[in-house]
Design brief:
single chain, 389 residues, alpha+beta, eight-stranded antiparallel sheet, four-stranded antiparallel sheet, 18% helix
């Protein structure tokens, strides 16, 4: 008996077998992955700007940090957080995105709410074939918050009937007619940071105005740059262009952008620079639905707030086959626009952004690479650690 206890005591005090170096590396790597995943989900995530819709606030090639702490991190809707595509979903044993496990989402408290002029990353609203947290991310400026009324008159933004104080340097597209397209004009375009990302060297090329037959350049630039070119002797005219679109292109005449062919029963015929007034829905607000406004709220009722059996018939919504004449909002909504006003697919096309689609606030450009510069000038040093405003 004593011998047995002594033997057991001796075994308890034997040193454990040391972990192999490969095992320690594996544990360290696993720990690092877990920590990085938690930080990426709950605090900060890195993004790169691929398009010019936010020029000049954000440039193509900017790498930025997006804070999820500002508005609060949101729990994943799909536990399987992978870069899924229509090709990889069947490989994983699912017939479509709708077969993936989807959970209710919850947003943890943040230390601020969405404010006008915030530059925000969010899930694109119109990719209905995917769960919200697996959709493409977009970045735009919040122009109007829940409860506001937005209007654009001759390119000027008005919020609640007053001129809106818009951050950044919003761009407009112009046709710049010149006496002779030459190196002097191209050098001025370069010096004023006017870019055309469709061209190999990043500079606009000379073209002909189809309305006047004059030679010149199609340029997108802030008002200050436009004023500079108006003072130059080689500029014959600088006129706004690109703001007119075909009917049923913009929201809410196009009630269900890229998802179905639903159109408003009462067309508004708004354009990019002449838009609204449009009220932005607020949580708890009860709306009386009529053919005149039903298209404004169709995506909200049928898609964003997960109501059952909503259909569109003769310019009105129906639920379970009966006309829906009243609805109360379950969450807040926001109106987003790109700073490059004539080159941005934004809320003017697809409508409001639901609160549960918002990912975070863009706060800092930590690196910026010029896609057209040579190796020695690739880094835009002046933009390193540049705050987003």
């Amino acid at each position: 008996m004593l011998f047995a206890r002594s033997k057991r005591s001796t075994a308890d005090t034997l040193p454990s077998k040391p972990k192999s170096q490969s095992r320690e590396w594996a544990n360290s790597l696993l720990f690092a992955v877990v920590v990085a995943t938690l930080i990426r989900w709950s605090a900060v995530e890195a993004y790169v700007i691929p398009s010019e819709s936010m020029e000049h606030t954000l440039l193509v090639g900017d790498y930025l940090f997006v804070s999820k702490l500002h508005y609060g991190p949101i729990t994943p809707q799909t536990p399987l957080q992978l870069p899924l595509t229509h090709q990889t979903v069947p490989v994983l044993g699912f017939k479509s995105y709708s077969d993936l496990i989807q959970l209710p989402t919850y947003r943890f408290p943040g230390f601020s709410s969405v404010q006008r002029n915030d530059v925000i990353v969010f899930h694109v609203p119109h990719e209905q074939q995917r769960p919200a947290d697996l959709r493409t991310h977009l970045i735009k400026r919040c122009i109007a918050v829940a409860g506001d009324t937005l209007e654009i008159r001759q390119g000027q933004v008005f919020v609640n009937g007053r001129p809106g104080s818009i951050g950044g340097a919003p761009q407009t597209t112009y046709f710049m007619a010149v006496a002779s397209p030459n190196d002097e004009v191209r050098q001025a375009l370069h010096d004023q940071q006017v870019v055309d990302y469709t061209q190999p060297d990043g500079l606009p090329t000379a073209t002909t105005d189809p309305e006047t037959g004059k030679m010149g350049y199609v340029i997108s630039c802030p008002a200050s740059v436009a004023a500079f070119f108006r003072r130059q002797p080689y500029v014959q005219a600088l006129t706004v262009t690109g703001g007119t679109l075909p009917e049923n292109t913009l929201f809410p005449d196009a009630a269900d952008f890229h998802v179905s062919g639903a159109v408003s029963a009462v067309p508004r015929r708004w354009q990019l620079d002449s838009y609204g007034p449009l009220p932005v829905p607020k949580k708890g607000q009860t709306i009386r639905l009529t053919p005149a406004n039903a298209a404004v709220y169709y995506k909200i009722v049928s898609q964003y707030e997960h109501n059952q059996d909503i259909t569109w018939k003769n310019g009105m919504m129906q639920q379970h086959g009966r006309p829906l004449t009243q609805y109360t909002m379950k969450q807040n909504y926001y109106f987003m626009m790109g700073d490059n006003r004539h080159n941005s697919e934004d809320s003017r096309f697809w409508g409001f952004v639901p609160e549960d689609h918002i990912v975070g606030k863009a706060v800092l450009v930590w690196l910026s690479l010029d896609p057209y510069a040579d190796f020695l000038h690739k880094v835009r040093w002046s933009r390193l650690f540049h705050p987003v405003s």
